[in-house]
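Quick review question:
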């Protein structure tokens, strides 16, 4: 089955990015000159996704505005003869079929995904965590699709993380199938101790799931943090149907954290065609002062 739908949960409050997230959705914070959410949408589109549902919340209307036409900018740029710039802005709305749905209550990632049930229907689909921007030569979603098409199972994008961070993410009980591909037998969300964790393989930002996950989510109660955890539902999916994991190629930035935000801007800033060269010069001089 070909994957054509993606769900991007982006309803979180962004408390780690306060005070700016009080006024600007964290998904709209920029990496150089593009908001973080645009990187996720482009990754999905570059992977062949046609329909994208972004789960939002109150106060996050800026995301919908970004992926819409802007008559004011169109008129202003065309009047100045900047036709290419005007077309670039309009192309943002034409990248894919982009829909928005509000999560009316903050009940966790699992609940956010459950709100997408009507959108997904009976199709298998991608979930792209709204905080995670991943820069790679081959889109990570496409990497996961390749594994999905080979094994016919749900696929989690994973990385080995330092043991002290496993307790902030999740831990997978997984055995190697082939290079970078694992069979997942079990998982736990935010293990309280190292002994409770299976491995230091953690899910970071991308999963492909079958539509059957919705039946599981409807029966999943609150877990870690008193929220409905997607990991708890995926654990049940592993027991019922099995699941794979891929240690993907790419650099992941946690855009829900101040450090991740700054790292993404520095690393992508030096590659930017417009400002990369002078920015590198600035950084080299600045480093001498440290």
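Suggested answer, residue by residue:
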């Amino acid at each position: 089955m070909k994957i054509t739908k993606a769900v991007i949960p982006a309803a979180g409050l962004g408390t780690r990015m306060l005070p700016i997230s009080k006024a600007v959705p964290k998904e709209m914070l920029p990496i150089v000159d593009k908001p973080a959410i645009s990187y996720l949408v482009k990754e999905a589109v570059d992977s062949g996704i046609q329909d994208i549902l972004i789960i939002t919340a109150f106060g996050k209307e800026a995301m919908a505005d970004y992926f819409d036409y802007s008559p004011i900018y169109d008129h202003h740029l065309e009047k100045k003869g900047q036709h290419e710039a005007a077309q670039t802005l309009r192309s943002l709305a034409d990248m894919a079929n982009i829909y928005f749905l509000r999560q009316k209550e903050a009940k966790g990632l699992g609940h956010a995904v459950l709100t997408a049930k009507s959108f997904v229907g009976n199709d298998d689909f991608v979930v792209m965590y709204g905080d995670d921007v991943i820069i790679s030569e081959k889109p990570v979603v496409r990497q996961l699709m390749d594994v999905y098409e080979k094994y016919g199972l749900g696929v989690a994008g994973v990385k080995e993380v330092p043991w002290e961070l496993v307790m902030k993410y999740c831990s997978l009980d997984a055995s190697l199938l082939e290079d970078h591909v694992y069979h997942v037998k079990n998982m736990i969300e935010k293990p309280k101790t190292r002994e409770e964790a299976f491995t230091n393989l953690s899910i970071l930002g991308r999963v492909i799931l079958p539509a059957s996950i919705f039946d599981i989510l409807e029966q999943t109660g609150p877990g870690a943090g008193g929220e409905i955890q997607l990991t708890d539902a995926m654990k049940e999916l592993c027991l019922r149907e099995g699941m794979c994991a891929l240690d993907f190629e790419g650099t992941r930035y946690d855009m829900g954290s101040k450090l991740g935000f700054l790292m993404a801007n520095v690393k992508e800033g030096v590659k930017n065609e417009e400002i990369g060269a002078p920015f590198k010069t600035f950084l080299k001089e600045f480093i001498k002062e440290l």
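Why it works: Residues 217 and 233 are 6 Å apart (CA to CA). The longest strand covers residues 170-178.
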